[in-house]
Amino acid sequence: MKIHEYQAKQLFAESGIPVPPGEIATTPVEAFEIAERFNQPVMVKAQVHVGGRGKAGGVKYAENAEAAKVLATNILGMDIKGLTVKKVLVTPAEDIISESYVGIILDRATKRPVIMVSPAGGVDIEEVAAKTPEKIFKLAVDPIMGLQAWQARDLAFKLYRDIGQVRKAADILLKLYKVFWKVDASLVEINPLITNAAADVIAIDGKINIDDNALYRQKNIEAMRDLDAEIPAEVEAREADLSYVKLDGTIGCMVNGAGLAMATMDLVKRYGGDPANFLDIGGSSNPNKVVTALRIITSDPNVRSILINIFGGITRCDDVANGIVTAFKEFQPRVPVVVRLTGTNEKEAARILKSIDLPSEDTLDLVVKKAIELAETTVA
């Protein structure tokens, strides 16, 4: 689960991390009134759950309240990577001297929280990693011992030479690590962490992703969820108990089991295709989940073909087949569909699918190749 910048900064402030004040506006008039109260130049920042807001024109400097109103008019309603901006953060503009990056991520390779810092802040960390990897410094933290003060200072020295700023940055790192654990985060990020003319060290941006599996004990965090800021298909999938992640390819994938789903996507890439999504219907045999899954996949305008790959165990092939037939009766998918159903009740599934005459293949390699072939011949 993702939360907005203003919500992340609220959690930072509660933990003692210095952040600038700010208020949320949903109309240009509200932006004007907030900027007028601050009575100084402000930043008007789109609040959406994607990166690259600045490059998309969603982060702007306003000299005064009237300018903030004009900018809010332009930003509210803007489409940024498929998400519509419905609220903006109005916050005092800072006199920035330097920009750094600070982040903590749960690393599966080391099975530990890894802290990353870089003196090259203000841009995507992926861009820094690609162009100047020597500017990124990492520390895998022992989860039992936690982040030690000396380790925080060592990382802070990678960012600043001024001892006062080193101490302030080290304190921020220690507090950020506590936030990471407190909210069950999979990622916390400050980009940029800035210094100003007064030598203050301030988090002027914030990002927190929460582990969905921990939300049962993070009710205050779950209450921050903004459904309007999430991809509608992912919201629908979550409500239907489906695991769905939208990607940028053209091959829609419906699979049972996360491991098989990943293997299917890997094979799509191997044979020259690009998966449009990760979608795992899980171990359920509920035909309604299949109907919802197909509806979600076909709602993506980039999809050119749909690959259904089911290995029947607990999930029965005939129930999946019934779901596919029901979906075809309720709505005709606008793109071709190819299936592979093997395992529990596969013969019955084949009989059921004869009523809609779907192409099928016996092996994973063949069904993937067929899906790619269909995608290449489907008109956009």
Overview of the structural elements:
The chain is an alpha+beta fold and 380 residues long. Helices cover 37% and strands 24% of the residues. The protein contains 13 helices and 17 strands. The strands form 5 sheets. Strands 7, 8, 9, 10, 11 and 12 form a 6-stranded antiparallel β-sheet that branches. It has a 4-stranded antiparallel β-sheet with strand order 1-6-2-3, with helices on one face. The chain has a 3-stranded parallel β-sheet with strand order 14-16-17, with helices on both faces. Helix 2 (28-38) packs antiparallel against helix 3, helix 8 runs antiparallel to helix 10 (287-298) and helix 10 (287-298) packs across helix 11. The longest helix is centred in the middle third of the chain and has 20 residues, at 163-182. It is elongated and about 75 Å long.
Counting DSSP E segments of at least 2 residues, the number of strands comes to 17
Mean pLDDT: 92
The shape is: elongated
Rg from C-alpha positions?
24 Å
The string of secondary-structure elements, in order, is HEHEEHEEEEEHEHHEEEHHEEHEHEHEHH
Distance between the termini: 32 Å
Low-confidence stretches: none
What structural class results from the helix and strand content?
Answer: alpha+beta
Number of helices: 13
Fraction of residues in β-strands = 15-25%
Biggest beta-sheet profile: 6 strands, antiparallel
State the share of residues found in helices, binned by percent: 25-40%
